[in-house]
Each structure stands twice: as structure tokens, then as C-alpha cells.
Amino acid sequence: MTESPLSGPRPHPYAHFVPTLNKLRSGSADTTTPSALRRLRVVLTVFFALDGFIFAGWVVRIPAIKEQTGASSSALGLALLGVSVGAVVTMVFTGRLCRRFGSHPVTVVCAVLLSLSVALPPLTHSAMALAAVLLVFGAAYGGINVAFNSAAVDLVAALRRPIMPSFHAAFSLGGMVGAGLGGLIAGSLSPTTHLLGLTLIGLLVTAVAGPALLRLAPPAAPTGQPDKATGPRRLDSRTRRLVLIFGFIALCTAFGEGALADWGALHLEQDLNAHPGLAAAGYSAFALAMTLGRLSGTTLLERLGQTPIIVAGGATAAAGMLLGALAPTVWLALAGFLVTGLGLANLFPVAVERAGALAGPSGVATASTLGYGGMLLGPPAIGFMADWFTLPVALTSVAVLAGVAGVIGYATRR
């Protein structure tokens, strides 16, 4: 296709018909108009929220699944490693799938798989069987996270605004609702009934939002930027290092999110004698703080920039997690979870967005693999440390890694 009058001297005489022809060929709606971009933002937000809702619904039932399987802390940690392995392996390949088939179809397919697989854990009665079904759940979880983050990076570039935190706010809001609902029904519904309900909700939402997403083509790259759909970009060593740095920041911060998701309720119930419903509210409080922090993330990034957000966020999360892990009462621990959520809120979306801006879907896949790898490998690590020491001591590792993320952000500020 020839260049436009703004970028080259000789436009093709039929160039203005090309977008229409492409639209007719693909069956997708044009996403160059503001209204189409707004629709795409809404649909992607729905999928982010659904992901958080389903994941939180699973994690608040972990104590019940642990009791059902009779697993020790270390055996449960190994079973949870199934989520990690499935997610990380899938993330490695999802960037390529997004390049070949598009991030929107991959998002829809993974949403269906995620909805179906969340019903499997209550059907198991051993740690080995639990690990096997969590492998499937983790594969779907990892795939959808790379796919819709890639789609979100394209939209951020098209809008030229740092709106990535708003998508992750939807994930946190979904997690808050899922955890809150799980806490309310934990004493009245079995895990089997609860998680089967999540399957039905997930399939219903995907049936409504999926066709809408498939009708919207990914936005074209802004003028002056390379088109990521044309193929993988050859990255120089400096760009690769930056992508890995952003991925490591994501790892350090997502470690805390995974630890609180899988072990926060157990810490409150086991170490502080909280009622199961109140224990489930621990992750809900954390997710609420993440949501509020991310809802303000775009404004904060526009006013302060990335480095202050990373440094201040890492320091705040470190202080909050020390309180949450070592507090002698439930209410102080909940306050610590809130502060931790506020600190971690915008670190992961900033890291993933920057990696995607540098390297397209491959950058998103790399940063997501490291980041969600930290989220999903963290819980098994916490389990082993809890057996070696105690669960409160194990949770202080979250504070350490949050502080490391802040230091890295300051050291690489230029």
C-alpha cells in the first residue's frame, strides 16, 4: 500500500478504498473512529473484569479445597505449581498466536477455556489430581492475560493516553467482587456449586462480549510507528534488556498479588483465628485497594510519570506487607493488605505497557511471562517457606520483592 500525502509524495489513486476493502474481507468493524475505540475499550474492560472475577472466585475456595484433598502446605504449594506451569508455558507461545490469529480471537477462546476449567478443582480428591486440573486452568489463565494485554497495548497506542491501569482496575474490581461474593457464600455453598456457578457466568459473559470483540479489528499503529502485525520486530540488545527489566519489575510486584490471593485468607484464618467469611474479605480488601489505585493510575501517570509511581509504589507496598504479615490482630492485618494493594496497584500495568510499547506482542508476552510467573510461582514458594518457617515470615518476602521493584525503578530511571 502506498504512503499517504502526509508521509509520501504519491498517494495511490484508490487508497481511500483500502480500509473499506479490508473491512469487508475481515468482517471486522473499523476501529479508527473514536466511537469504535470506545467500544473496544469497553469490551476489553469486560474481559479483564471477568478474568479477575473467575480467578478470585477460585482463590477464596483454596482453604476448602485444601481440606477436601487433605494436602499439607507444601503439597498444596506443589499443586498450585500446576497453575504456574500451565500459565508460563502458554504465555511463551501466546504472543505468536496473537501475531498469527489476532489478539481478539485468542482472548475469546481463552475466556471459554478459563470458564470451563474453573469448575474442575472441586472434583479432585488428591494433591496430584488437583495439580493436573490446575495445569489446564493455568494454561487458560496465562493465555487470556497475554492476549488481552496485547490488545490493550494496541489500544493505548491508538489513543495515545496511559489508560493501561484502567484495564487492570477492571481486573481488580472483578477480583474484589469475586472474592466478596465467595466470602458471602463460603459457609452456605459447596466449592463444587460455587465454581460451577462461575463457569456458567463466564460462559454467559463470553457469549455476549465475545462476538462484540471479534467484530472489532485491532487499531492500526499510529502514524510514524511500525505496524506490529507485519511480523516480529528485530530488537537490539538494549531494547531486550529494557523489556526484561520491565518484566522483572512485574515479577517482583505480581509475586505479592499471587501470595495474597492464595495465602492471604489462610493467614487470617489460621494465624489470626479469623472467621472464614472475614478471612475471605482479606483478598477483597486488597483487591479494593488495587482497584482504587488503578482507577487513579492514568491521572497519576500523566501528572507524575512512571519513575515516581514505581518508586513510591514499591516503598508503600513493602511497608504495607510488613504490617499485613506481622500484625497481631486481624484488623491491623487487613489494613496492611489495603496499603499493600495501593502500593502495588500501578506497577504491573506500567511494566507490561512499556514492554509492549517497546516490542509489541512479544514484549507483552515476555513481561507477562515474568510477571504472571511471579504471581503464580509465588504461592508455591510461600508454601515451602511456610513449612520451613511460618506463614507470617514467608509473607514478608512480598515486602522484600516490592522494595526491590522500587529500587530497580529508581536505578533505571534514565
From TrEMBL:
Protein's name in the database: Predicted arabinose efflux permease, MFS family
Membrane topology type: Multi-pass membrane protein
Keyword Transmembrane helix: yes
Keyword field: Membrane, Transmembrane, Transmembrane helix
Keyword Transmembrane: yes
Transmembrane segments: 42-62, 74-94, 106-123, 129-148, 169-189, 195-214, 242-266, 278-297, 309-327, 333-352, 364-382, 388-411
Residue intervals of the Major facilitator superfamily (MFS) profile domain: 37-414
SUPFAM superfamilies: MFS general substrate transporter (SSF103473)
GO annotation, cellular component aspect: plasma membrane
Subcellular location: Cell membrane
Alphabetized GO MF terms: transmembrane transporter activity
CDD domains, per database record: MFS_MosC_like (cd17393)
PROSITE patterns: MFS
